[in-house]
Structure formats: structure tokens, C-alpha cells
């Protein structure tokens, strides 16, 4: 009795999944484990990220007076461009910084402004 392939029964359509292509022999599993371990080294761990990176980026952009595109600002803030696109002039992405929005043609541009620091009041001393 001749065996039929699932592809023949389905009229030539393939129902194979990417998992079907994985070598599940011990050698294949070792290679897959090594690849997964290597891939993990390419992704920075959360603890390795600089918690001040956004603040420094905003401060640097403000100091330069640079205009950033929506994707550039979104990348700096770690947000989606669609989120940033919905903001207007005066939006404060973080305390101490305000944004100026400018539209030129189809492009949105953003300038970061450092807000003036509030002066500390001296505590009144008892008389």
C-alpha cells in the first residue's frame, strides 16, 4: 500500500510549521540551546540599562536646541512614535522638560526645553 504525503492530500498545500524544521536529535537540541544562549547575550538585560539615559538625552537635546523628528524623540523616550505624535506643544514628558511641537509639511518636529528650576525658599527662622 502506497503512503500518501500530507501535501498530496491537501492538494499540494503545505501545513508544515517552522517547528517541523527543527532538528530534535540531541545534537540539534545542543545547537539550538547554544543559539538561544548567544541570542540572550545580544539583548541588554533590564538591570544593565542606564536609568538616567532618558534624562541625559532630554538635557542634551535641550542644551543643543536640536529639533528631533517624532521617531527620534520616541526612541529617546522609549515610546511608540504614535504616542508621541498625539502630544502638543507644552507636553511634559518628564518633570523639568517641556516640548515645543512644529509641523513642516507632513513631518512633526520637536524641540526640548529645559524648564527653569524653581528657586528654593529659605525656611523662615523663628525670631
Kindly describe this structure.
By secondary structure, the protein is an alpha+beta fold. The protein has a domain at 53-114. The chain has helices spanning 6-9, 26-42, 53-64, 70-77, 81-85; strands at 67-69, 97-104, 107-114. It is elongated, with a radius of gyration of 27 Å. The mean pLDDT is 80.
Q: What would a concise description of this structure say?
A:
This protein is α+β, with helices and mostly antiparallel strands and 127 residues long.
Q: What is the general shape? A: elongated
What is the structural class?
A: alpha+beta
Radius of gyration: 27 Å
Order of helices and strands: HHHEHHEE
Percentage of residues assigned to helices: 25-40%
Q: How is this fold's topology laid out?
A:
Blueprint: H1 6-9, H2 26-42, H3 53-64, E1 67-69, H4 70-77, H5 81-85, E2 97-104, E3 107-114
Antiparallel strand pairs: 1-3, 2-3
Amino acid at each position: 500500500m502506497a503512503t500518501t504525503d500530507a501535501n498530496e492530500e491537501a492538494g499540494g498545500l503545505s501545513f508544515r510549521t517552522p517547528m517541523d524544521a527543527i532538528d530534535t536529535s540531541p545534537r540539534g537540541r545542543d545547537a539550538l540551546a547554544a543559539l538561544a544562549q548567544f541570542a540572550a547575550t545580544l539583548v541588554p538585560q533590564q538591570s544593565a540599562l542606564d536609568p538616567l539615559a532618558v534624562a541625559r538625552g532630554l538635557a542634551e537635546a535641550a542644551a543643543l536646541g536640536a529639533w528631533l523628528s517624532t521617531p527620534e524623540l520616541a526612541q529617546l523616550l522609549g515610546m511608540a512614535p504614535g504616542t508621541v505624535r498625539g502630544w502638543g506643544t507644552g507636553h511634559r514628558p518628564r518633570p523639568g522638560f517641556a516640548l515645543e511641537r512644529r509641523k513642516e509639511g507632513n513631518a512633526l518636529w520637536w524641540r526640548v526645553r529645559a524648564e527653569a528650576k524653581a528657586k528654593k525658599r529659605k525656611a523662615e527662622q523663628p525670631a
